[in-house]
Amino acid sequence: MFNHLVNNFSDLTDSEVEDKIIELGRKYWMTQNADLRVQISTVLEMFKDEARVRRAQSMQRNQENNDNSLDNLINIS
């Protein structure tokens, strides 16, 4: 999906992305204009995808850190 009104997501923090998702969801349900709803839902999906990617990357980093720390705890002699 692409929308020329959405800038680079890397400028936003995780909490800002989540705030945008909430804001866009609220605006989606406030309007009765079908064309506007399509535009909002497109941008909303872009933000949701970005949030999913960030969560997956965070989980992967946490898992890698936990795997490394567990290796140091196991002492086989």
What does this structure look like?
The chain is an all-alpha fold. The chain has helices spanning 14-30, 34-73. It has one domain (13-71). It has two helices and no strands. α1 packs antiparallel against α2 (34-73). The radius of gyration is 19 Å and the shape is elongated. The mean pLDDT is 86.
Fill in the keyword field for this structure:
77 residues, mainly alpha, 74% helix
Q: Main beta sheet, described? A: none
Please state roughly what percent of the residues sit in beta strands, choosing from under 5%, 5-15%, 15-25%, 25-35%, 35-45% or over 45%: under 5%
Bulk shape: elongated
The mean pLDDT is: 86
Number of domains: 1
Helix content: over 70%
Cα-to-Cα separation, first versus last residue: 55 Å
Secondary-structure element string: HH
Structural class label: mainly alpha
Task: Give the strand tally.
Answer: 0
Radius of gyration using CA atoms only = 19 Å
